[in-house]
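Changelog note: in this version the structure field was regenerated for every chain. One regenerated record is shown below for reference.
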Amino acid sequence: MIILSLIFWLVGLALLGGGLWLVTLDGSWYYALSGIVLIAVGAMARSRRPKAQLLYALFLVATAAWALWESGYDWWPLAPRLGIFLLLAIPLLWPAKGGSRLGTAVLLPVWAIIGVGLLASMTVDQHRIDGELNREVVNQNPDLGDSPEESWHAYGRSNMGQRFSPLEQITPENVNELELAWQYQTGDEKGPDDVGETTYEVTPLKIDDSLFLCTPHNLLIALDADTGEEQWVYDAKPPAESSRQHQTCRGVSYLPPADGDADSLDVQIAGAPAEDQAAIQCDAQLFMPTSDARLLAVDPATGARCANFADNGELDLMHNMPYKQSGFYYSTSPPVVADGKVVVAGAVNDNYAVNSPSGVIRAYDVKTGELAWNWDPGNPDETAPIGPDEVYSTSSPNSWSVASADEELGMVYFPMGNRTPDQLGMYRSEAEETYATSVVALSLETGQVEWVQQFVHHDLWDMDTPAQPSLLDLDTDEGRQPALVIPTKQGDVYVLNRETGEPIFPISEQPAPQGTIEGDYASETQPVSGLNFRPPTLREADMWGATPFDQLMCRIQFKSLRYEGQYTPPSEQGTIVFPGNFGVFNWGSLAVDPKRQVMFGMPLYLAFTSTLVPKDGADLGETNQGEQGLNENAGADYAVEMKPFLSPFGVPCQQPPWGYVAGADLRTGEVAWQHKNGTVEDMTALPLKIRMGVPGIGGPMITDSGVVFMAASVDNYLRGYDLETGEQLWETRLPAGGQATPMTYLNSQGEQMVVQVAGGHGSIGTTIGDYVMAYKLPRQ
């Protein structure tokens, strides 16, 4: 009994101490009062056991009532509030020898009822939205871009960025028969000197009978699309660079041959390494950006560099940059090939230095590499090619994600990021304010701005527009319109007329929190789309943990940090940013079905914290180790620390679910269904396959039969979903994290293949690897 009393005293003292701290922050009184009760139970447990039992029974009833009041009948919030206290009750269930059984007679049924009720809550999903998307074909002959039906010629299958394939061999009825057809390992693995965010995010291209993909360290690989056998490898050999924030390559781009037969390649198995072959005159071309800021043009047939493009197939993207710090600028996304041009944007390191390279977007002649135009958001009206002795604007907003293009309208559409530093707005010009955190339509011919739609005013939260726009023709009350659909980190899905930029779904302005550091300001309002997946404002009651103790610490953090809802400005105190800069949506974007005019997405909900750190001669220690952590902002008065909002045990402080799949009708803007996605199998020491709704990063792909494929989540699975209902139809275990968007095509035998790259993602901690996995139905 002494040990039992001691346990209750220790638990009670921990709750009392932390609870009193929380009360001083104007938080819940529950923990302090619970501590007092548990200390009293511990004192009674030895000599007055029936009274201890009765008091503990009352405590369990009160705790259950409080937990239900705060969180509703929901397993994940209830379990940490009740689980440990139900376990602590077990030693009290037996009556003392020779003593009254009254306490046991009361405590035992209370314990059993609450325990059974808690277990039963596992069968209830409060967060699920059930419904069905339209299966009716609205547009019989939609524009799917110029990729042949059996192929995949661009990152999003075509420059329209739909991630929709017209193939329909794999159906909701037979998808569960899919089996591994082949697998390939690239040999490109994370090295000891790599940055933290070394990631496999590539979607391969399928052209004729070959697949083409890049790797994080810029290997460009050609594979036989039937067997996965290696045809050639080109190694761009970028140097290691510790100041680089990302080490990734999302894909390559393709220029068809001049004869117009987009799917006719005679790919040869190179006898020598492709990088050692002499440059040749290329007809068709592959373009790969590198992590050391080059753009390479490579012959898809042999892997040799294209002598006709720039300097023997190599273009230095650091030309005319105002600052040229090594590792501060590079392209992680494939360029756009359209209208005889290859249009290239790039990423600029966030929060490393006020004076950084420009975010300029440039178009080069697709055959020669000659600069055709340059659009610099810091100098947006002057798009004629810059002179050899001129420089672009310092640190202007950049576009690091994938762009889309409509050659009939003569426009290319770029999702725009922010000017660095992200959290300090006093360095921005009027032009930079106009184009930051937006989508901008540029003329393919001249680079001039056709229109712009901004998604965050005076962005202080690193809410870059992260996703490729999806283009489709959408039926509306005003008739069929050329539409652009683009998701944002804030959870909005904007639907715009891609010719004019006018909203198809209404955009409203809502008041936003105020109060910034001296010299800066916060916009009084922020835009909100009529179609959105924004989460509700966090409450103290939403704080979570594996136990009451880390939940209590999360509550203390919540009350100690600044938080007045979405768009609370960053502060020296530390600010909760929710949704966090990881985003509700990120570069994986959405997949849209242009026939049924619906979308499939993966909303994600993780809070981050943002803290401005005054320098003023302070020793900051280690900085600039990636996007997360402490970044210096060289030249500014403040450094900034960005990190996930986690408990002391390293789990999110906000209660789950953290990740969903969702479907919405793009004609009405209605969310038809939303379900938790992913399990905790690879998040914990115990491989428990519990569907919790977990984080992820990556994107979906839709097929015409109504099957959606996506990996993305932090458990290592590729899954197939029913587009109509969102129900999971199939899954297969991957050997590494699947943080890349899958694609599909027909092999030479006319069989539909599904390919997923599985290589993991450094910043979310999934299993690292170098796999390319291909699946198909068994032959009948």
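Spot check on this record: The longest strand covers residues 479-487. The mean pLDDT is 93.
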